[in-house]
Design a protein that fits this description.
With 158 residues, this protein is of the alpha+beta class. It has a domain of 89 residues: Beta-lactamase Inhibitory Protein, Chain:B, domain 1 (2-Layer Sandwich), CATH 3.30.1450. Strands 1, 2, 3, 4 and 5 form a five-stranded antiparallel beta sheet that branches. Strand 2 and strand 3 form a beta hairpin. The longest helix has 14 residues. The radius of gyration is 29 Å and the shape is flat.
């Protein structure tokens, strides 16, 4: 009986370590993607075959992107991309397909911000200065007085 309980406890503990796979974005159908041919298709036929793009080019609407990725996550960890697809369809000025490239995770950029705080301009105040810093400042602006941020007390407009 004891070994059976130990087996159940071990199984329950290990089930928390199971990897969960999810999908985000465009679900790629290889046959439909292969059907998009440069010089043959146009915007309307690509939209009928593949649907609306995930996003269009920022500076030019002649670039359509279909992006999808598979993620794996263990318990409470951050999800990590395992597989990814990116189809880039470029149209010529007449609206016909010029190129259709099937890309993977090679073009995905991983951004890692430096530090855990965003630098800002202004005063560096600690918690207690933020909490108690406005005591005695209420009402002083309307009476000709100023604050640390506005020493003249004026509204700033002439």
């Amino acid at each position: 009986m004891r070994s059976l309980c130990l087996l159940f406890v071990t199984a329950a503990a290990l089930s928390g370590c199971a990897s969960v796979r999810t999908h985000q974005g465009y679900l790629t159908d290889p046959q439909l993607v292969a059907s998009v041919q440069p010089g043959v298709d146009n915007r309307a036929s690509v939209e009928r075959a593949l649907g609306r793009p995930t996003f269009m080019g920022q500076f030019d609407n002649n670039d359509w992107y279909y992006v999808g990725r598979e993620l794996a996550q263990v318990a409470f960890g951050n999800p990590k991309p395992k597989e990814g697809t990116m189809l880039h369809v470029r149209f010529d000025p007449a609206g016909n397909v010029a190129t259709a490239e099937n890309l993977g995770l090679t073009r995905v950029v991983s951004i890692h911000p430096v530090g855990d705080k965003t630098p800002t301009l202004g005063r560096n105040r600690n918690f207690f200065e933020d909490l108690f810093g406005n005591i005695g400042q209420v009402g002083s602006v309307g009476q000709g007085g100023g604050t640390a941020d506005n020493p003249t007390g004026g509204s700033g407009s002439n």
